[in-house]
């Protein structure tokens, strides 16, 4: 009997690959995150709770989570519409529009923040129009939400777009032939297919928005208890050389990020099982 030939792999064997993977993850992810726990341990448990639950810190949590949630919900809707248009329609300038989706990834966040602030102040192009109706964008939570929409929209579009491209149009045609309306077809045929990707895009946009600093710091106004975001408060603690307090607040945000990603994994898993059961 001929011996079965071992499959030749392009990359090195499992042992070497796993070693490189663990090393990279340790240097880039695990060790920096462990430093948060080490610095936070300089405080007693009572001091830690007092630090992360002070009135100003709780107010910053509220601003960060509220604006991030609203911005992510907006991105979920608008990102789905953008992905749908880019996949389902042909029009002049489509490639340019598709490429513009990547701008928030490539553009320095500080540049985005300065540009948005310049346009949305009461004397800016956009801000002057809304100021006539008594609506102020810059230096308010509306401005923070606008900045977070800008940096989060690519996550939703790039998550949903590949799923829409792979969808078979025959299911939609069959639903139309059977007399289903456009709304029913979208709700019962299309939406179940793209829901896991949409949830993933929403979650990534939400997690990114929670930790965003550069594009928000200029447009927020940084008013304590009103427009002061948690990353800015952490930065203020670092400038005061209060490393224990800064890392304690950062540890809370890290725990929130892990919780969000865990919930995302659970929802996607259950959604995938439901879709598989339907099929």
Structure description:
The protein has 279 residues and is mostly helical. The protein has 13 helices and no strands. The protein has helices spanning 14-40, 45-52, 55-88, 94-100, 103-106, 109-120, 127-131, 141-166, 169-177, 182-211, 214-220, 230-239, 243-278. Helix 3 (55-88) crosses helix 10, helix 9 runs antiparallel to helix 10 and helix 10 packs antiparallel against helix 13. The longest helix is centred in the last third of the chain and has 36 residues, at 243-278. 29% of the residues are buried. The mean pLDDT is 85.
Q: What does the overall shape look like?
A: globular
Strand content: under 5%
Helix content: over 70%
Number of helices: 13
Q: Structural class, from helix and strand content? A: mainly alpha
Instruction: Determine the N-to-C terminus distance.
Output: 43 Å
Mean pLDDT across residues: 85
| H-E order | HHHHHHHHHHHHH
- The low-pLDDT segments are none
Number of strands: 0
Radius of gyration equals 23 Å
For the sheet with most strands, the description reads:
none
Structure summary:
The chain is an all-alpha fold. It has 13 helices and no strands. Helix 3 runs parallel beside helix 8.
